[in-house]
Design a protein that fits this description.
With 73 residues, the protein is an all-alpha fold. It contains 2 helices and no strands.
Length: 73
């Protein structure tokens, strides 16, 4: 049994079929016999799992000159 704490990702997939194929390849490489997700005791699981903060901050870093003494060509 392997528990993944993050998304396995979809590689460079550009379609649902490619995404599914990528995940299936990962599972084959791990010699998985079954894929499942938690459906029972979800509330109990959530007590022990840190949820990521969904907020996003945008910074305008291009307008700040971090190297004022350098001359760019």
């Amino acid at each position: 049994m392997v528990g993944l704490t993050a998304s396995v990702g979809v590689g460079k997939a550009r379609s649902m079929k490619q995404a599914v194929d990528h995940v299936l390849t990962l599972c084959a490489n791990l010699d998985c016999q079954e894929i499942s997700t938690v459906t029972d005791n979800v509330d109990e699981l959530n007590k022990h799992v840190n949820k990521p903060d969904e907020s996003m901050a945008v910074f305008d870093v291009l307008s700040i000159n971090h190297f004022p003494d350098l001359k760019f060509a």
